[in-house]
Amino acid sequence: MYKALIKPLFFLLSPEKAHYLAMDLLSLACKIPGGKWLMSTLFRYNRPTLEKEVFGIKFPNPVGLAAGFDKDARWIDSLDALGFGFIEIGTLTPKAQDGNPKPRLFRLPEDESLINRMGFNNQGVDAAVARLRQRKSRVIVGGNIGKNKVTPNEKAVDDYVLNFLKLFDVVDYFVVNVSSPNTPNLRALQEKEPLKELLSSLQTVNLSKPAPKPILLKIAPDLTNSQLDDVVEIVTETGIAGIIATNTTISRDGLVTDRQKVEQIGAGGLSGKILKSRSTEVIRYLHEKTGGSIPIIGVGGISTAADAKEKLDAGASLVQVYSGFIYEGPAIVKNILKQL
To answer: Does the keyword Iron apply (predicted)?
Structure first.
C-alpha cells in the first residue's frame, strides 16, 4: 500500500515538506485513542531471539533509525510504534541554527538514494533535552552531537562537551559526528590529532561520571584505509565504545541518475542504495582490522533483510536505516526483522 499509493503522493511534494507531513500524520495517528496500539500491532515485531547486548545496552532488536530523521527529538514516541530497536536523534548543536538554504534535500529515485546538504539544522540541544524529559516511550535513544557552523574548529571541543553534558541524563549513548560534509571544515576534525583531542576530552568527562555512557564515532565512507587505521588507533587509545560506519559520501560514482541532474543538485552528502557496497567495505575492513573487538553500527544502503544481513555478516553488531525508510515505508523494520 505504501509503495503503490502513499509514496507516490508524498513524492509529489518536496522532500522536506513530505518529511514533516508524514511525521505529522504519524503523530496524529498515535494520538488518537488506540492509535499507537494499532500502529504497534501493525509494525512491531518483537522476538527474544532478536535481542542483542552491545556496549552494555540490551537492544530489543538490531535495527535502528539513523540520525538526521528526528533531529530535534520531536517524534520519539511516534517512531517507537514502528518497531525500531533504537532511535538516534540529532545532529544537535549547542545553539539553534537554520542550516543551509533550501532546497537542501533531493531524491534520486532511479538510485533509491538521497542527496542532502541540511547543514545541522536543529533547534539546539536545550529544546531536544526538554522533549526527551517528557517522552513516554522507553525506546533506546542515542544522541548525535556536532558543533555550530560559527564555531571554529579550534573551539569545537567546547561545543561537543557542552552537548554531551546537557544530553547525558536523557540519552542512552552518544555519537560524535565529525563526518558530515555539509558543515564547512567539519571533516577536518577526522584528522588524527584533532580527533584524538576531541574523543579524549569527551571520554575524560564521561569517565568522571558515576555511570559512564557509550560514546561512538561516526565516520565518513570516503576515508582511505590509512585513515581508517588511524581511526582504529584513536578509538582504541581513547577507549570509546564503538564506531558508526558510515555517514553520507561526497562521491557521485556509480549513479544511474542523469549526470546533468546530479550536477544541478550540487553539493551534499549522498545516501541510500548507492552507498551500500562502500559502507559494507568499511565495516568489513574495521572488523578485520580490530578482530571484532570494537562494536560497529552499520549504516548505508539498507532497504531489505539481505542488506542488513550483509552488514551484520561483515562485522556490524547493529544496523541503522534512513533513506531505505523513506523508499520502503513504515514496514521496513518489521520486514527486515521477520527475515532476520
So the answer is: no
Q: In the numeric block, which cell numbers belong to residue 301? A: 544502503
The predicted-structure confidence for 243-262, as pLDDT tens digits, reads as follows 999 999 999 999 999 999 99
Q: How many domains does the chain have?
A: 1
Give kind and range of the element (H or E) at residue 192.
helix 192-207
Q: Which domain holds residue 156?
A: 2-339
Q: Is 327 marked within a binding site?
A: no
Q: Report the CATH number that the domain containing residue 251 is assigned in CATH.
A: 3.20.20.70
pTM (predicted TM-score): 0.97
Q: What is residue 25's predicted lDDT score, i.e. its pLDDT?
A: 97
Question: Residue 296: helix, strand or coil by DSSP?
Answer: strand
Q: Is 67 labelled a binding residue?
A: yes
> Grid coordinates in use for 3?
509503495
Kindly tell me the burial class for residue 125, based on how many C-beta atoms sit within 10 Å of its own C-beta (0-12, 13-18, 19 or more): buried
Burial letters 199-229, b for 16+ CB under 10 A, else e: bbbbbebbeeeeeebbbbbbbbbbbeeebbe
Question: Is 172 annotated as contributing to ligand binding?
Answer: no
